[in-house]
From TrEMBL, chain A:
It comes from Sulfitobacter brevis. Belongs to the leucine-binding protein family. Residues 44-406 form the Leucine-binding protein domain. This is Amino acid/amide ABC transporter substrate-binding protein, HAAT family. Coiled coil: none annotated. Gene3D superfamilies: 3.40.50.2300. One of its GO terms (biological process) is amino acid transport. It holds the Pfam family Peripla_BP_6. Keywords: Amino-acid transport, Signal, Transport. It comes from the Bacteria.
Automatic annotation (TrEMBL), chain B:
CDD domains: TM_PBP1_LivM_like. InterPro entries: ABC_transp_permease, LivM-like. The chain crosses the membrane at residues 9-26, 46-63, 94-116, 123-141, 203-223, 250-270, 290-315, 356-377. It is found in: Cell membrane. It comes from the Bacteria. Pfam families: BPD_transp_2. This is Amino acid/amide ABC transporter membrane protein 2, HAAT family. It comes from Sulfitobacter brevis. The lineage of its organism: Bacteria, Pseudomonadati, Pseudomonadota, Alphaproteobacteria, Rhodobacterales. The keyword Transmembrane applies.
From TrEMBL, chain C:
The keyword Glycosyltransferase does not apply. Signal peptide: none annotated. Pfam families: BPD_transp_2. The chain crosses the membrane at residues 15-35, 42-64, 95-114, 189-215, 236-257, 269-296, 308-327. Keywords: Amino-acid transport, Cell membrane, Membrane, Transmembrane, Transmembrane helix, Transport. The keyword Heme does not apply. Its main location: membrane. This is Amino acid/amide ABC transporter membrane protein 1, HAAT family.
From TrEMBL, chain D:
The lineage of its organism: Bacteria, Pseudomonadati, Pseudomonadota, Alphaproteobacteria, Rhodobacterales. Keywords: ATP-binding, Nucleotide-binding, Transport. GO terms for molecular function: ATP binding; ATP hydrolysis activity. SUPFAM superfamilies: P-loop containing nucleoside triphosphate hydrolases. This is Amino acid/amide ABC transporter ATP-binding protein 1, HAAT family. Coiled coil: none annotated. InterPro entries: AAA+_ATPase, ABC_AA/LPS_Transport, ABC_transporter-like_ATP-bd, BCA_ABC_TP_C, P-loop_NTPase. One of its GO terms (cellular component) is plasma membrane. It comes from Sulfitobacter brevis. It holds the Pfam family BCA_ABC_TP_C. Residues 4-249 form the ABC transporter domain. Gene3D superfamilies: P-loop containing nucleotide triphosphate hydrolases.
Amino acid sequence: MSFLNLTRRGLIQTGAVAGAGLALPTYLRADAHAGYTNAPTGNTVTLGFNVPQTGPYAEEGLDELRAQELAVQHLNGEGDGGMMNTFSSKALKGNGILGKKVTFVTGDTQTKSDAARAAAKSMIEKDGAIMINGGSSSGVAVAVQGLCQEAGVIFMAGLTHSNDTTGKDKKANGFRHFFNAYMSAAALAPVLKSAYGADRRAYHLTADYTWGWTQQESIAAATEAVGWETVNNVLTPLASTDFSSYIAPVLNSGADVLVLNHYGGNMVNSLTNAVQFGLLDKEVNGKKFEIVVPLYSELMAAGAGANVQGVIGSMNWNWQLQDEGSKAFTKSFGEKYGRPPSNSAHTCYVQTLLYADAVERAGTFNPCGVGEALEGFEFDGMGNGPTLYRAEDHQCFKDVLVMKGKENPTNEYDTLEIVEQTPRAQVEYAPDHPMFAGGELGQCNPGA
Amino acid sequence: MFGIGKRDSTLLIIVAIMALFAPFILNPFPTGSAMAQFNAGYPDLMQRFVIFGIFAIGFNLLFGLTGYLSFGHAAFLGIGSYAVVWMYKLLDYNVIPGLFLAVIVSAIFALAIGFISLRRSGIYFSILTLAFAQMMFAISYSDLIGRFLGTTITNGETGLQVYTSDPQILIDDWESVPHLLGIVEMRSTYTLDAGAWSFDFNAGYYFCAVILLIMFYLAIRIFRSPFGMMLRAVKSNQQRMNYTGLNTRPYTLAAFVISGMYAGLAGGLLASMDPLAGAERMQWTASGEVVLMTILGGAGTLIGPVLGAGFIKYFENIFAKINDNVLHSWFAILPDGMEDFMVTIVHPFVGKGWNLTLGLLFMLVVIFLPGGLVEGGQRIGRVFRRRDRNAGSVEADAAKQRNPAAE
Amino acid sequence: MDAILLQILNGLDKGSAYALIALGLTLIFGTLGVVNFAHGALFMLGAFCAVTVQKLLSLSTITLDETQKDFLGRPLEIKTPYVESWFGPETGSLIIDWSVPLAILFAIPVMLFIGYVMERGLIKHFYKRPHADQILVTFGLAIVLQEIIKYFYGANPIPTPAPSAFVGSFDFAPLLGLDTSLAYPYWRLVYFGFSTLIIGAVFAFLQFTTFGMVVRAGMADRETVGLLGIDIDKRFSIMFGIAAAVAGLAGVMYAPINSPNYHMGMDFLVLSFVVVVVGGMGSLPGAVLAGFMLGILESLASLNEVKAVLPGIDQIIIYVVAIVILLTRPRGLMGRKGVMEE
Amino acid sequence: MAILEVKNVGKRFGGLKALDNVNLSIAENTVHAIIGPNGAGKSTLLNCLIGKLIPDTGSVMFDGQSVLGRKPFEINQMGISRVFQTPEIFGDLTVMENMLISCFAKRDGAFELNALASVASQRDVIEKAEHMLEDMKLMDKRHMHAAAMSRGDKRRLEISMCLAQDPRLLLLDEPTAGMARADTNNTIDLLKQIKEERNITIAIIEHDMHVVFSLAERITVLAQGTPLVEDTPEKIKGHPKVREAYLGESQDAA
């Protein structure tokens, strides 16, 4: 055995030399001293925007892409500057990043881990992208985050709401601006209690995949803490399009609240089906029956139409916020694209600026330097009030919005209204919280 | 040579040369140029070309020869990937044990699924294989077995990956990514800059390419063997086979298992290049993709499936990345109005519209080239080689064996 | 007990959708011998007929309201649908409210036409081609159709509500003398009724009209009917149109149940093939029977009591049933010998 | 001595009695014809002999072994080859390949996983196949796709493939059905030649009296699922029962 080991190690030593000899030139071809993947050469730097462009989340991906394009414009000093004017850090000057003009490449995640990794790899290997930004599912975020860790580039996660992204699957090269299931639940529970009372019996329908599980776990724990009882939790297949057979039994279960731990098409359909069954018109246990959707998005609300009316949920950000940052972003996005930005657009926009800012402050594109600049970074002026990128798990902490479907929308974008802006302190948790346990951030990897 | 005929040797040598020089062939445009968008010579895509080539070759051994259309082959692809990642988790990052396990496990599954499904033929067989694969997809996607046992088998939708807490009993300090026997890391890449051009030579790609060549060689051997002839006989006339004293079942089952092993190997290689195994690799869309690859390239031909695989993967990875910015840069030389006009015209077909282009090409190919891309190649070949028509193309035989009228 | 009744009811409703789609598919697949991967796309086109009618009826004049502001602080645009200005607000909004049933009138000619054109322009040339080629061309067509819809309507689902008269649910419990609730949505009951009507109509058409009789004869033995000097090809084109219309109508009425999106056809594609094959190739009654059977079994498998014993069974029940049936009955429930078995 | 012994075989399809107490014995090295009007049960009987159908009663012994319950390929491997009414050949394969398959089946049995050996290296099989094609005058067509041949050639190929297996019993099911007169005569000549050159038992089911009387040494007449009479052709020709049951109507039909 030891002989074998020796041989192996011997092989490896020669191998390591050969490997290094093979590996080095790729990443160092431009700047022999940089020592990190895709060190930018010349006067441009390339960002990689990896969003779903086909498949069910294509519309969301499109909105993310719009925001990212806008961010690039602002970084390059075009347009009105948007949130760069309200951002508390003043490192960005509108002359690109570190004086290099920003260009970008795009990829299609198809909302599939494989395709997302292929697209990210192509941007890293072929186009020399220095960072990857975007996406709209937790599975994809975890997959691409792992890839970026291995490749040695920074990953800004886009829309990913699963606890795992900065929990058991967290990575040193990955950062998440979006909130997570735990924070949604922590923000929602008090509002739900005050709106519907403490004596409620909740029936959960949960999409049968990682995000659904963590969302259900979080909201159940938070609502139980305010006195609610969880009557049942039913896992629904992701591929379901018709949720009638899961909704039919709800009325006879003795529950008076239905919690839909669904996202995207699942949520649009399950909510539509639930309203069809007339759940919202019923009275159970002497109380009006209610539906809760822990994670909302503008596009889902648009897809579900009138069915969202009166239904409470949470969001990372909304264009109706009245702080200066949100107003500036909504204005410049609205003027360019004729529509208000979605919360995933906001996340991707902010992440692009934050990345650029971190590079400026670190004075290098080296992911380790950038990571260091982002870790523990506190700032304001990007919507959601004072914000922290926590060093321990790279989760962002900021105010969370509790939303409600608007009863009488005046136009197609006016589907949701802000019920409460839950302060950051209320949604914070310890880095070693059991729902986030199991993973390790590891060391930052600069690649080559 | 190598126990195969002259034409087949020629084909094998051509494929070998193409594989060897792929980094040059696939990167014909200077890096900075507008056309560089069409370059496909970067490690990830080159790896995908050969891996899906292996998958399609294997699928063709079943479908192209016996005519049995499996709609669940992606199940074996997924199994192969899971097997390799499990070996990473239990042993270390060496890819070899995992690849062996991938082939063995996929063979076992193929044996079981094939044994049951091959009791039926035609569309009934297709639906049986589809049903098995979709079941396996659902089970993996929600990790039903893992949940039942209270542990993790597939890690659900996130995909199976290596955590530092895994046993990894053979791990050494230097190991952090998949490697071949400790000799070379799969991601090692040497980049050759030649003037405005740049070419990537990636260890993982060459590893896959060598395996592709071996698998291609084996496929040639199978095609030209009595066994391969029997498989074509199955497709042609099962009744006559039975009354010629031949038992069709073990032939089809053997073909199914071999082709499942190819798929398992391909899946294993995917995880060898990129240490992650996701459930969507098993979904019916993935099974459908290999069917399309094979038909598109030319079912029943040797090289067709490889071409089909390359074609589809090229569109998925190259066309999807062409956004409006790129379009504007292409047409920048035109006057402003013309530029915008051209961008508007091309816009629906690229970027997020890449599916549309692919769909249209499927239709065009099948309408105008009934024998798939191979037939296209032959037609071009015929134009160039009118003088010695008799020599024919290497693929002519195989193409002719396509069923002229299946009805 | 009430839970089981409710699931059976729900299964009938789901099953009616499956049956309707499978019926159209069988008309093409089991009779013309064409593997039509674009059938799901036809269903999707039907649903988008409903969306289109809703959008057309909602075409509006725009006036600016200076007292209200939009999100950029500009005067708010107030939209008044033309139909409201033509017929008065009440009749106008009633027309918009009933856009889905109205869409049936729109969808029938449109889908017949699409089906007819598809057959004449494309499918016709593939009758003699291998099934593999049919798969490739119809799959390509399905992608093209859904990408076209995506281009014009976007990827997001579009809410297409049923008339407000059908909002809410009907409680069967008092009817059956049960003391719990057995509520089922009105629109789904309508869907069930509509599907049975269409299924009945198709069977009646094939059974009692000369046209139908010729087509049935052609299904059984195409050559002989051709020899009789009957232009069977033309009738088959019309059958293709009818199959498309059946799929389209299934889609129109489905729109209020789930907001239509461009890939809904692909979601139904695999399922509809399973239904048709379980029913047995070439058998219309088989397709209908299998549709209802799978719908009911799927619903029953999602009973909490069942899931407690077999977690995840609802995800795989369709496939388990398909495997069991195909292994015990070689040609599905009612399949004919020799159809798509080569 | 009898190579095939059919005893008390009966077969019903629902209410229809297709075969009723059939006894038949085919002697080695003879050409034995089974004739009878439509619906007499000829095809049913044949299918019982080759494993496609299993009779309800009775036994079928081939060379002392029962064939009942065996699968078609097993019965073939016992030494019974069958020629179909419409030639069953591998249409997508070349004539040579058709012949090779037959030869491989003879050499390697029902299944052999020789996936890596090249066909070209199997000299013994190739020689045998070529020899057979030469014998049967198909050598010049060996590169043709079998489906592209004339009906007569397809029949010739099918018979050759059966012969390549050196069967002990060759079953022919209306080998000239639907053929032009010239093709029919060719087929008759071919079968005569086979009969003369090879030690082989031939059982032939035929409608066409011309074929039957040109070839058969013994004839069994089947009517309504049961054997009416068995004798030499000369005797059968004059047999009043046969005339009554069969010949009168069939001469026009042929």
